[in-house]
Specification:
about 625 residues; alpha+beta; Glutamine Phosphoribosylpyrophosphate, subunit 1, domain 1; Rossmann fold; 2 domains; 6-stranded antiparallel sheet; 17 strands
């Protein structure tokens, strides 16, 4: 895994002051501590930070084609590079390295922009063609790797992290109001938006080409849900396991030590079980537990230990406690924009612990999106039956009772999920799902900001972005629409963004076998009733896992990787919350209605409503604002 940076003049040539990009490379060092390479000419500057994984000796970048008219910088891994190399060598291409990166530059020579369709991997890359004066870039199909870009003063910038683009003291830092609203709706900022008005993200499965001063962005891949009800569960289980096994095998290719995250759930457990098939040595595995006042949160390290015992892995585990003041700045600087998924906390510690022993780790991410593992998926499916209850009974009787129930003392989400369900179940299916997702109710949307009229259009923008995916032709059936929407928004810009930033902060490469695009395309043919059967989420995945995982791992109720944030905010972290969200601190920028913030806190502390995600969003925004707006740009590293 690596870090990319580049800038291309769109009009003429760089002057003598435009040559240096050493600061930009310095701030990306954590993404690639092993080497730093450059390419410079009158029109373009390319920089690459390398984390050496494959071809440790000769794989430094940029890498050139035979006549040095084209060069490439890559962030990622191409898992089918050996197969592609054989094909390209048969076509007459000459290779100078054993690197997977060189496969892309020769593929671009042979197939042009269509080379991306032949790649199996996670990647963002940029190719400079000095003969055609063309810059070509791409982001992988699922958005596992980031690609930020901007245009300012006739210069095109791109980077793996926004901090590199922001190194220029004159680069504008105007906050994008639509992005800010999306952040408080979703807890993350969906592509193509970023918190900065002048910086954007390339969408997953898209390429970008800059030629003659013109920027062209095109889609090269998408997924379609086409359930095949002529096939049996056994057919899908066999086909899935074959593809997952092959995906794991490919992702174990490495010239450096590798291991696996092991949470105690089905997804990570299956990855470890399949890794064991392809390894002569015990697998290195890593787990996190949670300390402090955790309320009803269950420590799942015991379930992880049953997998460890079965497959005799070399296991390491760590208990984390809610004292985050020392790492908050580090987390904020890793994202460069507000990011409020609290799973960043355990991901930070897990990556730090794992990197002490290995350079590559496999993860079970993606299983929830493929097989309907989230509670909101079950809620969405059940809402179709709930709406058959007469309107008067639902709205005047059931809702009235549910709204009066206090949240559980142990911090569990049971009551909160029921409340969110009855509030949104009556809506049309697309608005219903937005209701399940959003941290802000319709009423709170009007009261969160001190000047609500200033942000009103942002709520419409966020909703429309989600609706465009939900109502796309890529899925016809309601639950498949939900899964498609999440794969295009929540998966790349929340789950995968969190994994990329937290792992790369510690120079750790994380690979995700569940997100092999061929595996996804196969899973998109599995009917939704096999993924969620009655109350049973991930039904078919559990059946597939029975032969390779202990029974207690398959049957226990997984809690997710978020930690006991509900209780922490009410107990261990309460002084930190009150200090950070005091009127004095909020009034520094004056964006929020302080009375609304107090209400949000009071509801959470007094068990009227679980507002942990919204409180965490406010905390992360305050920290981000302190670092990126109030401080000088030279401090941002």
């Amino acid at each position: 895994m690596c870090g990319l940076y580049g800038k291309l003049t769109l009009n003429g040539q760089f002057d003598s002051n435009g040559f240096g990009i050493s600061n930009e490379m310095l701030v990306l060092k954590h993404r690639g501590p092993d080497d730093c390479g450059y390419f410079v000419d009158s029109q373009i500057r390319l920089g690459h930070r390398r984390l050496s994984i494959i071809d440790l000796e000769s794989g430094n970048q940029p890498i050139f084609n035979e006549d040095r008219t084209k060069c490439i910088i890559l962030n990622g891994e191409i898992y089918n590079y050996k197969e592609l190399r054989c094909d390209l060598e048969a076509r007459g291409h000459q290779f100078r390295t054993r690197s997977d990166t060189e496969t892309i530059i020769h593929g671009y020579e042979e197939w042009g922009k269509d080379c991306v369709k032949k790649l199996n991997g996670m990647f963002s890359f940029a190719i400079w063609d000095s003969r055609e004066k063309t810059l070509f870039g791409a982001r992988d199909r699922l958005g596992i790797k980031p690609f930020f870009y901007a245009v300012h003063d006739d210069v095109f910038y791109f980077a793996s992290e926004m901090k590199a683009i922001l190194q220029g003291n004159d680069f504008p830092r105007e906050i994008d109001q639509d992005a800010l609203v999306s952040y408080f709706m979703l807890s993350y900022i969906p592509a193509p938006l970023t918190i900065f008005k002048h910086i954007r993200k390339i969408l997953p499965g898209h390429t970008i080409e800059i030629k003659d001063g013109k920027i062209d962005i095109s889609k090269y891949w998408d997924i379609r849900f086409c359930p095949d009800r002529s096939k049996s569960e056994e057919y899908f289980i066999e086909g899935f396991m074959e593809r997952l096994d092959e995906s794991v095998r490919l992702r174990m290719i490495s010239d450096v030590p590798l291991g696996a995250f092991l949470s105690g759930g089905i997804d990570s457990g299956m990855i470890v079980a399949l890794m064991n098939r392809h390894s002569f040595l015990p697998i290195n595995t890593y787990s996190i537990g949670f300390g402090g006042n955790v309320g009803g949160y269950l420590d799942e390290r015991g379930y992880a230990q049953t997998v460890v015992s079965r497959y005799k892995t070399n296991h390491s585990a760590q208990l984390i406690t809610p004292h985050f003041e020392d790492i908050m700045d580090d987390i904020v600087r890793s994202f460069d924009e507000p990011f409020a998924d609290s799973s960043a906390i355990p991901s930070y510690y897990l990556s730090k612990m794992t990197r002490k022993k290995v350079t590559v780790a496999l993860s079970g991410l993606g299983g929830y999106e493929l097989f309907g593992g989230y509670e909101r998926y079950l809620g969405f499916k059940l809402s179709q039956f709930y709406n058959r209850v007469p309107w008067f009974v639902r709205e005047k009787f059931i809702k009235g009772i549910v709204e009066k129930i206090p949240e559980r003392k142990d911090g569990h989400y049971t009551i909160n999920h029921i409340k969110r369900f009855v509030r949104s179940a009556r809506l049309h299916q697309d608005a219903r799902y937005i209701g399940f997702l959003s941290m802000l109710s319709e009423e709170r949307q009007k009261r969160l900001f001190a000047a609500p009229e200033k942000y009103a259009s942002g709520f419409d923008c966020c909703k429309q972005l989600l609706l465009d995916y939900f109502n796309a032709d890529n899925a016809k059936e309601p639950l498949d629409r939900v899964l498609y929407c999440d794969m295009k928004t929540y998966l790349p810009e929340d789950i995968l963004a969190c994994t990329d930033r937290m792992s790369m902060r510690h120079s750790l490469e994380v690979r995700v076998p569940f997100l092999d695009h061929r595996l996804l395309e196969f899973c998109a043919t599995i009917p939704h009733e096999m993924k969620i059967r009655h109350w049973d989420k991930k039904h078919i995945l559990k059946k597939a896992a029975r032969d390779i995982l202990p029974k207690e791992v398959v049957t226990h109720r997984k809690q997710g990787f978020i930690g006991p944030m509900t209780r922490w905010l009410q107990t261990d972290l309460k002084p930190y919350v009150l200090q950070t969200l005091s009127d004095e601190n909020l009034n520094k920028h004056g964006m929020f209605n302080t009375n609304t913030v107090k209400t949000i806190l009071d509801e959470h502390f007094n068990r009227g409503e679980i507002n942990d995600k919204l409180i965490w969003a406010l905390l992360m925004f305050q920290n981000w604002y302190n670092v990126y707006v109030e401080r000088e740009s030279s401090e941002i590293l």
